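User: My instructor asked us to take a sequence, write out its structure as tokens, and then describe one feature of it. I'm not sure where to start. Here is the sequence I was given:
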Amino acid sequence: MASLDALIAKNSDRLADPIYLQQLNQETDKRFLMVLVEKDGQFVYIPKHIDAMGLRAATVLQENNRPPDHHGYMLLKYRDFTFSDQKNGHIFFLTQTKPPGPLKILYWA
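Assistant: Let's start with the prediction itself. The structure tokens for your sequence are:
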């Protein structure tokens, strides 16, 4: 997560690039975690299989500590930040609460 914080400090606009977020999520999805970025009330990029569920931050995040949805996903707000054009940005982690396959313990650097 430190790399996201560093990216915000150096070039927050990179988080508004759907291609960058797609590449980032190809890596994080291996850990049953996705990074979603919201800019000015709209998600910048949503993976197709997640978008099919109709995920919208405004409805999912009415309470940040709500239980997982019926698809087995939980959306967690990581942090707020500001883009260079002064629009509000928010980073969310979408995690699968019941990942398929054997459970593995993950260690974050």
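For the description part of your assignment, you could build on this observation: Confidence is low (pLDDT under 50) at residues 103-109. Try explaining in your own words what that tells you about the chain.
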